[in-house]
Amino acid sequence: MGGIQICIYVVFLLCSVSLNILLVGRYVYVNGGGRRWWSEEEEVAVGWSRKAAEEAEAVAAISCSGHGRAYLDGLVVDGSPICECNTCFEGPDCSLFSPSCAADVDSGDPLFLEPFWVQQAANSAVVVSGWHRMSYSFSDKTTISQELEKLIRNLHAVVGNANTTGRFIVFGAGSTQLLNAAVNALSPRNSSAPAKVVATIPFYPVYRLQTNMFRSVDFEFGGDTSLWKNCTTSDTASSNLVEFVTSPNNPDGKMNKAVLECPNAKSIHDHAYYWPHFTPISAPSDEDLMIFTISKLTGHAGSRFGWALIKDEDVYEKMLNYSKFNSIGVSRETQLRAWKLLKVVIQREMFDFSSTTMEERWERLSKALLMSNRFSIQENPPQYCTFFGTVRRPSPAYAWLKCEKEEDKECYNVLKEAGIIGRDGSLFGANSSYVRLSLIKTQDDFEILLHKIKKLVGEELDGGKSSM
Q1: Bridge partners (DSSP) listed for residue 308
Q2: 91 in helix, strand or coil?
Q3: Of 119, 95, 116, 102, whose CA–CA distance to 445 is shortest?
Q4: In the list 119, 207, 273, 339, which could disulfide-bond 278, CB 3.0-4.6 Å?
Q5: How far is residue 249's CA from residue 272's CA, in Å, rounded to a whole number?
Q6: In this structure, what are the phi and psi dihedrals at residue 125, rounded to the nearest 5 degrees?
Q7: How far apart are CA 321 and CA 26, in angstroms?
Q8: 3-state SS assignment for residue 250
Q9: What is the DSSP letter of 118?
Q10: Are 336 and 132 in contact (CB under 8 A)?
Q11: Distance between CA atoms of 298 and 34, rounded to whole angstroms?
Q12: Residue 5: pLDDT over 60
């Protein structure tokens, strides 16, 4: 009986040793052969992206009559995505036009570039794997893609709109996050009074709204720059000043320059619109702190990606920390998409499309208002553009329309009654005789706006004839 037990133990021992030899041998073979340690079943199969591509193409193929778009993450009815229609269009395929609908040109939604990206479907598409960059940071322990940073520097060199030499780069969730990060970085700590954040009227309302919302012991909104131009007054001399310089300006497209020259004044240069389709590029901007955004460059406002070019290392570190603690950087998917889009942009073809589109819109709008004495828009004198190598007129993102007559001083209401929804000039610090009209929305939006403008001017001219 004892001999049988010994035999059994020996058999089990031999089996155990053999199994361990097999496992060790396989480990050495797999690793020694340069293969991954996991089994073949766990390796990524070729063609894994095919299903995702098929889903995306199926949705893109849904017809919305040219007046809408279906999206993979859009509205679903009976298990299938449906069309999301442009303003004033409705129906299952967006083919029904509502003639009584108002021209909504309030927002700066840059959808005028959508047709270009449809043409560039293959070059701009991104397939994101389920395991794409799941970490908080890249392999270099930062939250900024080195390849995207290189591409941005190269883009500025090609366009010629900013000097990136000797500048640090910080990414943000659109320019909106970076604007406040800059205010935070430029406002002294432990000062006897908060820094005054100022801008020149008419100015982008977000400067005031965001500064007021994030107001702290370090900064507060101080209004128009004209209140602080005299550096010798006691209030100005004792205050730290942070000036927003928007160039081209939102809403009127002017190439603004810093107004304040006091030694205690610092500036943030918002260059969201300093691209060839909005203004001729005269020279590279060479300021200490410059902010750009993909929203008004490629039209991808929903991706929320912007960047700042910063000369001072201390300001750079403060803005980087702001981004780190506010959102732990910009999402990796957003950076991947921005990288893919900018690879197309740098080929220059997009600027041909965008510039032609904006020039045509300005030409048609200017012609429609040419005979009017009731309404006027800003003049856009031609300038030499280094990017295109020709003299061109600016084609700003917005028309800064003025109601010229005293009885029309509430211009927003005048236009609203005519079926045009713009943005009241008072929101920009200007008087209510001005209204901002967005020219960068869809072609449908622009055509409806133009129809309403022509109707208004036609009524004006007919009224003038009848009174003669």
Answers
A1: 170, 291
A2: coil
A3: 102
A4: 273
A5: 9
A6: -70, 145
A7: 48
A8: coil
A9: H
A10: yes
A11: 43
A12: no
Both structure tokens of 374: 């009731």
pLDDT of residue 11: 45
Reported as a single tens digit per residue, the pLDDT across 98-129 is: 999 999 999 999 999 999 999 999 999 999 99
Phi/psi at 197 (5° precision): -95, 125
Q: Is 384 helix (H, G, I), strand (E, B) or coil?
A: strand
Q: What's the whole-number mean pLDDT along residues 167-188?
A: 97
* Residue reference for tokens 């893109």: 60
pTM of the model: 0.89
- Distance from C-alpha of 242 to C-alpha of 264, rounded to nearest angstrom: 9
CA distances from 217 to 176, 209, 212 (A): 21, 17, 12
d(CA 393, CA 380): 6
Average pLDDT over the chain, rounded to an integer: 91
pLDDT at residue 301 above 70? Answer: yes
Q: Which two tokens stand for residue 49?
A: 């992206």
344's enclosing H/E stretch is helix 332-345
- Tell me: pLDDT of 371 over 80: yes
Per-residue pLDDT, 44 = 74
| DSSP of 42-75 | GSPPTTTTHHHHHHHHHHHTS--TTSEE--TTS-
The residue type at 141: K
Strand, coil or helix: what is 222? strand
pLDDT, mean of residues 386-405: 98
Q: Is the peptide bond before 248 cis (omega within 30 degrees of 0)?
A: yes
- CA 148/CA 335 separation, integer angstroms: 7
Find the helix packing angle between 313-327 and 174-186, rounded to 10°.
130
| C-beta atoms surrounding 238 within 10 Å | 11
C-alpha 317 chain-centroid distance: 23
Rounded to 5°, angle at Cα 418 from 417 and 420: 95
